[in-house]
Design brief:
The protein is an alpha/beta fold and 497 residues long. The protein is built from 13 helices and 19 strands. The strands form six sheets. Strands 2, 5, 7, 8, 9, 10, 13, 14 and 17 form a nine-stranded mixed beta sheet that branches. Strands 1-6 form a two-stranded antiparallel ribbon. A two-stranded antiparallel sheet has the order 3-4. Strand 18 and strand 19 form a beta hairpin. Helix 1 packs across helix 8. The chain is globular. This is DUF1501 domain-containing protein. It holds the Pfam family DUF1501.
């Protein structure tokens, strides 16, 4: 090849690289702006979020809410494993009267079963061994397992007609948290971070707290992808706060590092990353800069939130003795209130241990004790601080439990398998009608007979309360526009204030 030809090809290559680089830079900047909000950008050479910036959080991709919102934030108390609605909320005298009798085929209607009970030759009906009483202005039935919840029933909207398609834990939990049974989609908190952004410049928009229950301590595990960002930028993933010396991994500086030194390092990293961004135009580079800056700010804000020593004694008394033990459900409920006070957008609590296939009476009694007082205290605490009116609190699991016994049924013992056809959740605050029971199941507690509520209906309603039209919060990926509710979902207007 001639020297002239080489120079011509080289010139063409450089021109093409220059053009594509500049084009990617512009497209990347626009994409990042839509993800993070224009407040992230500065006009100087260092790009985004340096020590001179001062803003109250960051904007989401929505320029404005689709309609007036009732809620500003969400605290989701996810009860992982599938709490038995028949022991807690859905009182069924028929099951008690017909205890031990076979589940009628007309009720089961050929529903598929899990591999854990599909081999059973008999499906004996099992009424709860726990008593129910009526509480509140509407005489709502609540189990004796939940005495604290019973006292605040007039604050709750109890939905007895939830249903889902998933019959096993992993796809069922994934469905609730991401809108799809298949992994890889963004979680609810990530969608909200993407759409609404954050109202706190020193804490993440999406925080996660985990606790393990005493009902079944070695029960179903949870995976970090449940609070992952999926195909959204990594800035929107949930940040897990741990019950350990370091609440957030890799947040603390090594010994000898000063605040000034750390600031200088971050500024230099930002400058280097900006140069790389100029070459490649990948918005994820900018997201990484933003994450470095958030970590820097969290070094002071996270310890302040996690340290609860300044809480008065009456607060610990409200939440229960476990509130002083880091990592317990009660302690996490208290932390959730503190995060809500700091305007964290989405606060996700996971409490494991509800998967009770055998020895259900003994296991669920322990599990209910874990959560009852603290859940009620959280609602009461938010209300006394004026936060409940714009904070949506959600309590529930991924599916319910069967009305027949898994394994041997005795006078004092039985188990229950997974049941996706009907189960119970409750919501409070944030624009939800208080003191309401919505939906109804049949006398056997097996099928829904009034006002069914699908998982996507629940998700659409939650987004509606936050001022979002669930059909309009979308993200284009691999040629398709995705949303949390996929292609379904209806807002439950009857439960809204």
């Amino acid at each position: 090849m001639s020297e002239k030809k080489i120079l011509e090809d080289r010139s063409l290559f450089l021109n093409r690289r220059s053009f594509l680089g500049k084009a990617a830079l512009g497209a990347g900047s626009v994409a990042l702006a839509s993800l993070l909000g224009s407040q992230f950008f500065r006009k100087d050479k260092n790009g985004i979020i340096t020590k001179a910036d001062d803003f109250g959080g960051n904007n989401g991709m929505l320029n404005a809410l689709h309609h007036a919102s009732k809620a500003k934030r969400v605290i989701y108390l996810f009860q992982s494993g599938g709490p038995s609605q028949l022991e807690l909320f859905d009182y069924k005298p028929t099951l008690i009267k017909r205890r031990g009798q076979e589940l009628p085929d007309s009720i089961r209607q050929g529903q598929r079963l899990t591999g854990m009970t599909s081999g059973q030759s008999s499906f004996p009906l099992a009424g709860s061994v726990f008593d129910f009483k009526q509480y509140g202005q509407n005489g709502t039935y609540i189990s004796d397992l939940l005495p604290y919840t019973a006292k605040m029933v007039d604050e709750l909207c109890i939905i007895k007609s939830m249903y889902t398609e998933a019959i096993n834990h992993d796809p069922a939990v994934t469905f609730f948290q991401t809108g799809s049974q298949q992994p890889g989609r963004p979680s609810i908190g990530s969608w909200l971070s993407y759409g609404l952004g954050s109202e706190n410049k020193n804490l993440p928009a999406f925080s996660v707290l985990l606790s393990r229950g005493s009902g079944r301590p070695s029960g179903q595990p949870l995976y970090t992808r449940l609070w992952g960002n999926g195909f959204l930028h990594s800035l929107h993933q949930g940040v897990q706060f741990r019950a350990a010396k370091d609440p957030v991994l890799y947040l603390n500086d090594p010994k000898g590092m000063t605040k000034e030194g750390k600031r200088a390092i971050l500024d230099k990293l930002a400058e280097m990353n900006e140069k790389q961004f100029d070459d490649f135009g990948n918005p994820e580079i900018q997201s990484r800069i933003a994450q470095y800056e958030m970590a820097y700010k969290m070094q002071t804000s996270v310890p302040d939130v996690m340290k609860t020593d300044d809480e008065p004694d009456y607060i610990y008394k409200m939440y229960g003795a476990d509130a002083k033990i880091p990592g317990t459900y009660a302690a996490n409920c208290l932390l959730a209130r503190r995060l809500a006070e700091q305007d964290v957008r989405f606060i996700q609590l996971y409490h494991m241990g509800w998967d009770q296939h055998d020895n259900l009476p003994g296991a669920i009694e322990k599990q209910a004790k874990d959560v009852d007082q603290a859940s009620a205290a959280l609602v009461a605490d938010l209300k006394q601080r004026g936060l409940l009116e714009d904070t949506l609190v959600i309590w529930g699991g991924e599916f319910g439990r069967t009305n027949y016994s898994q394994g041997l049924l005795t006078d004092t013992n039985y188990g229950r398998d997974h049941h996706p056809r009907c189960f119970t959740m409750w919501m409070a605050g944030g624009g939800i009608k208080p003191g309401v029971v919505y939906g109804e199941t049949d006398e056997f507690g097996y099928n829904i007979v009034k006002n069914p509520v699908h998982v996507h209906d629940f998700q659409a309603t939650m987004l509606h309360l936050l001022g979002i039209d669930h059909e309009k919060l979308t993200y284009k990926y691999q040629g398709r526009r995705f949303r949390l509710t996929d292609v379904e979902g209806h807002v439950l207007k009857d439960v809204l204030v």
